[in-house]
Automatic annotation (TrEMBL):
GO terms for biological process: protein homooligomerization. It is found in: Nucleus. Pathway: Protein modification; protein ubiquitination. GO terms for cellular component: nucleus. Keywords: Nucleus, Ubl conjugation pathway. SUPFAM superfamilies: POZ domain. Belongs to the BACURD family. The lineage of its organism: Eukaryota, Metazoa, Ecdysozoa, Arthropoda, Hexapoda. Residues 15-83 form the BTB domain. It comes from Euphydryas editha (Edith's checkerspot). Its main location: nucleus. It comes from the Eukaryota. This is BTB domain-containing protein. The keyword Nucleus applies. Residues 259-292 are annotated as: Disordered.
Amino acid sequence: MSGDHKTLIKGSPSQYVKLNVGGTLFYTTIGTLTKSDNMLRTMFSGRMEVLTDSEGWILIDRCGKHFGTILNYLRDGTVALPDSYREIMELLAEAKYFLIEELTDSCQQALSKKEREAEPICRVPLITSQKEEQLLIMSTSKPVVKLLINRHNNKYSYTSTSDDNLLKNIELFDKLSLRFSGRVLFIKDVIGSNEICCWSFFGHGKKCAEVCCTSIVYATDKKHTKVEFPEARIYEETLGILLYESRNGPDQDLIQATSSRGAVGGLSCTSDEEEERSGLARLRSNKQNNQS
């Protein structure tokens, strides 16, 4: 505008100045603006020319949305940050522009905290190809449990209990993935082979066990596909795969004990903690028996 001109601003700390920040007007003292070492101190201590209009408003070409927060921080040395992630990002941009290091650090810490809070407790990748599956299995240091589930692979009609058992397999997978999410990588395959419902267990990049939950049964007139829910077997293999958490590899005697199916005939699933304790106790007992 024709009345705008550049000038040096320097005065006593108690002197008030008028600020036009992106169209939003503010009224504050030079003492507030020069309170800490930042760009505003440079602008209002006579070291940098500032642009003023014909009415004496000092023009600052920034969005005025968060400038009031900036002023309150300069006045008090602390300020309540916005609640939303987006607004903290906006305030961070202004703090960086005005070179206010302490406020910048506070914004960055608040953003990091919100990112941690938003981080899912449990992630279950849904694989889209065999190549992607191999990449996931080989790139993790955790044991892996994969559930292949594809109801549409069936060539025959299902038995009356198959749909219910299919759902039970999915529910058990979800339950185990929540419980062991920090120790085991769970992945789900819905486009895989000709199988309908199959569990696979991997340790150190190699398949250790597999539990196929489907079979063909013969009726008087035609074949049917039967989906089963071998809950005890699945629990056993899941507990066994925990042996692969060690980077040095699992104890071979314990692996041999894990493969003994007779040990789980009377598995009682009363609670998650009791299941793991009783399962591991059986593995240790089998190891001692094998050694004797």
